[in-house]
Amino acid sequence: MAISGKRHLFLTGGRGAGKTTLLKELLPLLCPAPVPGICTRAVRGEGVDLVEVPSGRITRVGVFDPALPGPENRMRPVPGAFAKAGVRALDACMESPCPWAFVDEVGYLESQDTAYQNALLRLLEQKRVAAVLRSQDLPFLNALKARPDAWVVDLDRPFGKIGCVIMASGLGRRFGGGKLLASLGGRPLIDRVLDATEQGFSRRVVVTRDAGVEALCLARGVPCLRHDLPLRSDTVRLGLDALTGEVSLDACVFFPGDQPLVSSETVQTLLLAAAHTPTAIWRLGYGQQAGAPVCFPRALFKELRALPAGRGGGAVMAAHPELVRVLPALSPAELRDVDTPADLAELEALL
Fold first, then answer.
1. Average pLDDT of span 114-141
2. One-letter-per-residue 3-state SS of 106-132
3. What CATH number was assigned to the domain covering residues 162-350?
4. How far is CA 145 from the centre of its chain?
5. Fold type of domain 8-154
6. How does 142-179 read in b/e, with b if 16+ C-beta sit within 10 Å?
7. What is the pLDDT of residue 17?
8. Each residue's pLDDT tens digit, 234-266
């Protein structure tokens, strides 16, 4: 939330996506004090209750109607229930000293009550709000999801369509050759990069000139493009073309094959940041040090394909400094790469 610049957090997704469970886990992280709010819970075959937190007051706001089309929208709103109990609960949130409030959930019942909608909009102006939104095409829900001050996470597709190019074409001259297959903690160095990038990407590809790296990737079922072109700009172009030849991507991450201590948690945080700021360039950093991996939005793909000979994505970042944002790494070790045997020994000690 801090790096996003957004004020509110909205979770959405289909049934069973874990929206409520995730919200419960996040609330103590958002605010150490008890967070006031609203829970709505369905009573199977009977109705929907609104529970006010922290008072625990319960109001029936929807009743089951078997005549309504199912399977999800078979509850009929109780006239005036949201206007009374719902507005009262939201007003209580506004009076609380806690800077945050939560609403679990906002759905089709709530979207039919104008008084409740207006109270929720007032709450959004006065507090920071963490909310669960049903995944339905309704005007009020769509307006909430479109708010520029809200970070909306769709748990069905939290990262959008982002590709990953693993840059593994270096000759490793300072290392003495073959550094990506050198052992780190009993495993090939690049194996750890493959682990870190295994989740969240729509597509990924390893671009290399090394037959051993190609064999390792194929053994793990990771797409690999082996080539014999000499320049870093060649690797960028080949990787991007390999990912976007048949599909459209929202963004692409370029990940050095010799940076083995980046965690999968950091990678997925980078993906979340990129998915919700689609015009930004995101790169990993720690303190005053900025590094890799770097995620470029689709609008810059043309420039990446036309890099000056021998240059990498840094040339595009230099041309668009206003777009660059830095995601703080969990530790400085995540930015460490391997150029020499001494570097590898230092990373071994860190492990």
1. 94
2. ECCCHHHCHHHHHHHHHHHHHCEEEEE
3. 3.90.550.10
4. 16
5. Rossmann fold (3.40.50)
6. eebeeeeebbbbbbeebbbbbbbbbbbbbebeebeeeb
7. 80
8. 999 999 999 987 678 999 999 999 999 999 999
